[in-house]
Amino acid sequence: MTLVGVCSRSFSRHPTLRAEILARYPQTKFNDAGSSLSGDTLVAFLEDCDKAVIALEPISQDVLDRLPRLQVIAKYGVGFDKLDLDGMREKGIRLGWVPGVNRRAVSELALCFMVTLLRRVAPLSR
Questions:
Q1: If you compute the radius of gyration of the chain from its CA atoms, what whole number of angstroms results?
Q2: Which CATH class name applies to 4-100?
């Protein structure tokens, strides 16, 4: 049976996301302690997992070397700067993510900033 480790604190607290992943992977463990995982604590959490859902957790070559069972890493959020993509490729670990998932929120925020600048909201609020 496939064991999934959800490292992401926000994913672990989200009832809808928990229900969806448990429906697909009943053998899922969550970061219910709400602690930030890295290095040894990350390896200890994922050591028996085949798949991982990460957010801000750093996945270095050292971490990958210590997780021989890991086959898939799903990125919850944006950015790959904390992932050793070359190391993942060498080990045959697949990466899952949805590109552009936050495109609408980013567009809305950009428009908000434009209107704020246009109407001089920040200087007038002092």
A1: 18
A2: alpha beta
